Amino acid sequence: MIHLDKDETKAMVAVHGWSGICLGLLLYAVVLTGTAAVFAQEIGAWAAGHLNSQSAFEAPVDARVRRLSEATPAQYRDSLNLFEVGDHGLGAFFHRDALDAKGMPTERGIYYQLDHGGRLTSTVHGTSEEVFGPHNDDALSSFLVDTHVRLHVPNPWGLLLTGVLGLTMLVAAISGLLIHRHLFKDIFTLRRNGSPVLANRDMHSVAGTWSLPFAFVLAFTGSFFSFYGTIGVPVVAMAAFRGDVQALSEAVYGNPRKSDPRPASIGDLDRVTADAVRRTGEAPTFISIEHFGRADAEITSYHQPKSGDLEPVALLYNGATGAFERAKPTVGTRPSAGGTLSGIMGPLHFGNFAGILSKAIWFGLGFAMCYVTYTGMRLWVVRRGQDTRALAWLERTLTVVGFGLPICLLAAAAAFLVTMPLGSAVYWTTGGFLIAAGGVIATGVVTRSNEALTRRLKGAAGLIMIALPLLRLFAAQGPGWSEAIASGRPMTPTIDVGCILMGLWLVRACWNAARLAHRDSTVIGKGVRA
Amino acid sequence: MTTAWLATLALALSAMLIVVLCQGDPKRLRAAGLRSAAMLPRRRRGLAALACLPGLGCALSGNSAAFMLWLGGCALAGWISATWPRRKSRAGTGAPAMRNAP
C-alpha cells in the first residue's frame, strides 16, 4: 500500500474527516436518493399501478405522429422529440430553437402526451423547462430523481451543489485509500465486540474498502453530469464558439449535412422503429427528428447498450425516406475514445446497462456508499468521545438525518399513493416529505436519548414500509399480484414483498432493542434500590 | 451465453472463493480468538488469484457489461461476507464469538 509519513498521514486524516463531516449529511442525502433512484422507473410503475409492458415504440407510432403534426402550427414543426411517458404512453414535443427571457438557448413548442392506446391525454404549450415538469402519475419517481440530481435547489445552483458533493466523495475516497495502511489485511476484519471507536472504524473501513472502486466511478460520473451543463458546456462554448452554445451543440452532437429546405413528407416511422429494434435488440428510449417535414430531415433513434456492452447506441436514419444511414457516435461524427468514455458515463452511473441484475447490484453498491458515509460520520463523533457533551447535538443530527431521511422518502411514497387517485400527487408527494421531516425533527428534539430516538425512527420506518403495499392496493387501487404478473410486471409484487420483509425486520429490531433497554433499566433500578 | 448468465456464473464462482477467504482470514479469526483455523498466506494468495479469474474471463471475452456486473457483485459479496454474523465456535475455544450483524 501507499506509505505516508506521520505528518502526511495526519493531514490526510484531517482532510478525510473534515471533508466528510462538513458535507457528509448532504452527501448522504444525495447517495441515499441516488440509491432509490436506481429503481426510479420500477418504483414509479409500482406506485402508479402501471400494467403495460410493451414499449410505446413497439406499437404503431407513425399514424399518431402524422395526426399530431397536422394539428401543430407550422412554426413549431421544425423538430420533434419522441419518448416514452407514464404507462408506456408516448410523449411528443414539436418545437423550434428559441431564447428564453434570460437570453439562454431553449426549445419552445407544443408537448402532446398520449396514452398507450394512442389517445391524447394532455397538450401543453411552452418551453422545454415549462412542459417537462412532474405529472400526477410520475410525481414520486420525479421527486426521487430531482432530490438526487439537485436536492430541489434551483438550477444551476442545485447541480453545482451536487457536483461539489461528488468531488467531496472523490476526495474522501482518495484520502481514505491513502490513510488506510492495511487495506487488504483488514478487508474482512470486523471487531464489533471491541471499543466503540474500533467497531465503528471497522464497519466504516470494511464497507469503504469493498466499495472503493465504485466510490470513484459513481463520484466521478455524478460530478461529470452535474458540471457538464453548468460549467463544461458554457466554458467550451466561450473558448471555442464565442459563447454560442447552439453552435457547440451542433458541432458536437449534430449531423452535418447539406441543407435542403424543400418540403418533404417524413419517412415511415414504424419502419424506422422496427429496423432500429432489429439492429439493437431493444426498443428506442428516445427518438429525435431534426428538420421535420423537410427533404433534409434526419431521425436519430437512441437505445440502451446492446447485450454485453456498456455504450448506448444511436442510429441515424434519413428523415425523408426512413432509410438507415449509420450508427452515430455519442460525440462527433466518427467513433473516438472520448466519445466512448462520454457514452459509458450514463450506464456506469445509473447501472441500467444489463436490466434488473445491473440495477440490483448498483442498488446494493449505493447502499454500501450510504453505509460508508453514515458510519464515517459516526466514527468522527465517536472518536471525540471525551467531547460527547459538546458533540451530542451532532450525534443527534446524524441520527435524525441517517434514519429520518428514509422515513421522509417513505412518507413521500405513502402521500403519493393516497393522493394520486385525487389528482394532487405532485403537490402532496413533496408535502408528505416535508411533513414527515418536521415530525422526525420534532421527535429528535423531544426524545431523551439517542438510543431511544434510533429505536423510534427504525420502528416508524418499518411501520410505513409495511403500510405501503396496503396503500398501493387499497388507496391507489393498484393491481393485485396475479394481475401484475400476468401483465408482465413482476417488479410490482417484488417491491411489495421487499417492503413487507424490510418493514417486519425493522419493527422486530425496534421491538428487540426496546425490550433490551427495558430490561437494562429494570436491572439498574433494582441495583439502585438494593 | 447472455450477459446476465455469464456474469452470474462468474460472480457465483468468485463469491464462493471470497466466502472461503473470509472464513480463513487470519486477522478476522484472531479477533474472534480462533487462531488455529487461519489459512496460510500462500494459500490465501492462490485463492485470491483464483477469485479474480472469472472476472478476467469476462474481460477477455470482450463482455464489458458482464465484467462490470462481476466487479460490482464481488464488492457486494465481500462486504456481505465480512459483515455476516459469525457463529460461536462449537469447540468453545478462544474469546466470546463476535456478533457481526450488519
Description of the structure:
- The complex is a heterodimer of chains A (530) and B (102).
- Chain A contains 17 helices and eight strands.
- With 530 residues, chain A is of the alpha+beta class.
- Chain A folds into three domains: 1-49 and 156-243 and 341-383, no CATH class; 56-151 and 244-340, no CATH class; 388-523, no CATH class.
- An eight-stranded antiparallel sheet of chain A has the order 4-3-2-1-5-6-7-8.
- By secondary structure, chain B is mainly α.
- Chain B is 66% helix and 0% strand.
- The longest helix of chain B has 21 residues, at 3-23.
- Chain A binds chain B through residues 185-194, 203, 206-207, 210-211, 213-214, 305, 307-310, 348, 351, 353-355, 357-358, 361-362, 364-365, 368, and chain B through 2-4, 7-8, 21-22, 25, 27-28, 31, 62-66, 68-69, 71-73, 75-76, 78-79, 81-83, 95-96, 98-101.
Helix content of chain B: 55-70%
**Helix content range of the residues of chain A, please?**
55-70%
Strand fraction of chain B: under 5%
> Describe the biggest sheet of chain B?
none
Distance between the termini of chain A: 56 Å
For the biggest β-sheet of chain A, the strand order reads: 4-3-2-1-5-6-7-8
Tell me, what's the shape of chain A?
globular
How would you summarize what this structure contains?
The complex is a heterodimer of chains A (530) and B (102). With 530 residues, chain A is an alpha+beta fold. Chain A is built from 17 helices and eight strands.
Helices and strands in order:
The complex is a heterodimer of chains A (530) and B (102).
Chain A: H1 6-37, H2 40-48, H3 62-71, E1 79-85, E2 89-99, E3 105-114, E4 120-127, H4 128-131, H5 139-150, H6 157-179, H7 196-210, H8 212-240, H9 245-253, H10 269-280, E5 286-290, E6 298-303, E7 313-318, E8 324-327, H11 337-350, H12 355-383, H13 388-419, H14 425-446, H15 450-475, H16 481-486, H17 491-529
Helix pairs in contact in A: 1-5, 1-6, 1-12, 1-13, 2-5, 6-8, 7-12, 8-11, 12-13, 13-14, 13-15, 15-17
Chain B: H1 3-23, H2 26-31, H3 41-60, H4 64-83
Helix pairs in contact in B: 1-3, 1-4, 3-4
